[in-house]
Amino acid sequence: MKSKRSKLEKEKRLTKETGKEMEVLKVRLKKKEH
Question: Which residue of 16, 21, 25, 26 is 20 to 30 Å from 32, comparing CA positions?
């Protein structure tokens, strides 16, 4: 159970980080367009 939970936490953290990266990329693209 513990290992499963920690795995989910790691995945959540990864998705959060990738989400932030995507936001940054979107902002960069918008800046390039203007």
Answer: 16
Q: How far is CA 22 from CA 6, 14, 30, in A?
A: 24, 12, 12
| Amino acid (one-letter) located at 21 | E
Kindly report the three-state secondary structure assignment for every residue of 1-34. Answer: CHHHHHHHHHHHHHHHHHHHHHHHHHHHHHHHHC
How does pLDDT run across 2-34, given as a tens digit for each residue?
Answer: 788 899 999 999 999 999 999 999 999 998 876
